[in-house]
């Protein structure tokens, strides 16, 4: 992820936390902290990605981790994600919270998607 590239470039420690990776936890490296709320997420075009309870649990977990980092002397916490389709979920939240159209907040991701794929992505977010 871009966050890991920046961390490596500036020799900054990084903590990777499994909140909802879609894999078997046993397959993850020992360095990954396991605080799984659920495995993977729902398809946002047909169901909620996560329940309200899971979202609250994940946010509270993030707050606790940020508090731990602050208590240990960390000056800055930068969040990142390891996902396929993570920008789609993020754009859905931003569009809903800001009351704006999906096309305003939908990017083309790191892969540089073509126009048709971008339009489908916007439709899924709407």
TrEMBL record:
Q: Which UniProt keywords apply?
A: Glycosyltransferase, Transferase
What would you give as a GO molecular function for this chain, any one?
A: nicotinate-nucleotide-dimethylbenzimidazole phosphoribosyltransferase activity
What is the superkingdom listed in this entry's lineage?
Bacteria
Which InterPro entries does the UniProt entry name for this protein? Nict_dMeBzImd_PRibTrfase, Nict_dMeBzImd_PRibTrfase_sf
The identity of this protein, by name, is Nicotinate-nucleotide--dimethylbenzimidazole phosphoribosyltransferase
- Identify the species of origin: Streptomyces sp. SID7499
For the keyword Transferase, the answer is: yes
Which SUPFAM superfamilies would you find in this protein's record? Nicotinate mononucleotide:5,6-dimethylbenzimidazole phosphoribosyltransferase (CobT)
